[in-house]
Amino acid sequence: MKLTRTLIIASLVLLATACSSSSATTSTDATPNEVTLLAYDAFIPKEGIFDAFTAATGAKVKIVTGGDSGVLISKAILTAGTPEGDVLWGLDNTLLSRAQKAELLTSYEPVDYGDICVNYDKQWFTSHKIPTPSSLEDLVLPAYRGLLVTQDPVASSPGLGFLLGTIAHFGIDDWQDFWTSLKTNGVHIAPDWTTAYTIDFSGSSGKGKYPLVVSYGSSPPAEVLYAEKQIDTPPTAVIESTCFRQTEYVGALRGTRNPKLAAQLISYLLDIPFQESMPLSLFVFPINKKATLPNLFTKFATAPKNPLTLDPADIETNRDAWLNTWRDIIL
Amino acid sequence: MRKTKTLLITPVVFLSVFFVAPVANTVFRYFRFSEFSNVLSNESLSGVAWFSLWQAAISTLLTLVIALPATWALSRYTFRGSRVTRGILTAPFVLPAVVVAAGVLAITDSRGVIPILWAHVVFNVSVVIRIVSPRWSMVNLRLEHAAATLGARPTRTFASVVWPQILDAVISAATLVFIYCFTSFGVIAILGGISRRTLESEIFTQAVRLGNTETATALAVLQAIIIGAVFFITRRSSRPHSTSLHVSAPQPLHIKPNRRATPLIITATAVIIVASPLLATIYRSLVVNSQISFSAWRLLFSGSLPALSVTPQSVIITSLVFAIATACICVPLALLVATASAPRALFSIPLAVSAATLGIGLIITFNTSPYAWRSERWFIPVIHAVIALPLVIRTLEPATHAIPASLRNASATLGASPFATWVQVELPLLKPALLRATGLSMAVSLGEFGATSFLSRSGSTTLPIAIAQLLGRPGVATQQAGFVLAALMVLVTVGVMSRA
Questions:
Q1: Structure pTM?
Q2: Interface pTM (ipTM) of the complex?
Q3: Which residues on chain B are in Cβ contact (under 8 Å) with A215?
Q4: Among candidates B322, B347, B286, which has minimal Cα distance to B479?
């Protein structure tokens, strides 16, 4: 009993000090020669890309990663106002409204874009002598029964993108019918991108059962860049009309101790050298129109002129309801 | 008894700061009674709770059925390959869920209840062996021989001589296994498809994917209540009626078992069940397009990884540094608790709390100076130690309890100070358990992917993160590199565990 009491007292003392300190100290001096970029785990920029920034400003760029984009943004929102860094990378149009509501950022700008599209295994369709599907409507035809694997939209960002794409294409009232037909036609739902692409999909390393997979418009060039043996053309390709546009934003976190450096870093991220490094390190398209694309991207990556899109505010308002409806249809 | 309380000051302060405070902070901030009653009346969420319960019960039962006979064989006999066998059976605990689950998936080719149960068995056989084996190997053989001499058949000897002495450890292990399966997250995420969810995975979904922190907290409280009830029930049934065992030291192992085949067959069965998903991992690291290729392994030894900006060496070193730091923090604390024979329930509390709840607590508590520790490097092994502590205490407790008071008294009578007694009498007896505890805390650190995934890192990529990153990108080479790292983890841990 004594022990329990000690424990409670100790924790209360700690809580009290924690609370008092949080109200007392809002601004402390930080090392002015460092700026912290918060990003998701998959943010792996080209080596040495920030050297020029350091040379120009005298400040080093410290990259702090924390989970996938969902985890990163949720964490940032929970501690909005007392941020872990100065600049946030990883907000996309499906999460933008949530961040705005929490006043997470003082300013933000689009930094890159890419598409979530159905990819197909070229060899499978050739050897089975079946034409590749060319639209979302095709996916519910008997010829394509049991061929598609997508991801749980609750847990996976490409899964959510594909669902939003179908809502954008079929409209608020008719997307449910499409999914009912898709279910009848044997769509397979994987828990995440990794499982879908690397285990279930037949066109990549896993040699699974499904020749159609929801992935990115930039997946084919990645297949070439990271091929096991050198290849000239990717084994996969993209069905353009299924592509849903994902735009990523970069912004200054509210509560940053280095607003000036944060602004400088953001303009650096939007400038040509960094923008041109993104395609082959992050597999996204640069937002800066002056940036030139690498060959691999112009040849094999897909970013349609008129992709499917939805308004971020609509997404935020309806996401929970859409996901629940989707669960009711699929489960 | 007075003195033993002072031993507890450090562990209690440690847990208060790094566990109680953040969790209490989350609950104070986000718990609402209205949301709690919403959760209770929500049909789909109560279905989730029900599934968590029954799959955990069956997983626990299966794990015991497979692990206990193997534990017997490994604690009583030594045979050609028994060390490697122990290594194989105890290795999966270290592996990230993504590796084991991908291995199971490669074999079953489907998701659902059976793959989930299988993966849970693969992970948890090691928990049973680690906790029960030290105790079993200390059951005095002379007692068994005496029973046999008096005409008891082996089953009778087991039921009335051995079982009462290991029961405490078995219940302790079963409770842990149940809780691990009940709060299963990684395995469920990969093998559950979208229809199978546990409370833990739903807490994560609500908090992180949907941004419903209040629903998540309500679910976390529900989960803690259920786990608390499980503790209460198992504690009542394991009132130690075996406080003083007739043991002094680990008993010698039989080199030639009487019925040589039985222990071999038993362990072989367990090994097949546990090892096949691990072999699938190694297979994936070697075979590309149904052809054997060593290119990914060559890449690893040449010191570069595709798509990641870190070298394999630095990933491995980072993981090892965290693992060693975790053991250095955790084992002494656990030894203090186990020696003081503190109420076990108190130090089991971390098991009842969802990783997501702790993770949220950490980032909202340690976000302002002077406590802005959430992105400090040292914070990660500290939190690993919090998570490993209940498990490590359980590994040590059966061994500390099994030391008869008479030994201590004899030592004291002969003039030894309590400290000298501890160093010269107790420590040597505890050595095997301490080694296991060290291995276990390192294992938890190497594999932990729950609460610390909420912490941010700067340039400190660990193995599970590197594997998840590599498997999370398109391209055959990146995938294969991921499986190479996973296979490397499998091989190294099997190697390490077979020596510990």
A1: 0.80
A2: 0.72
A3: 474
A4: B286
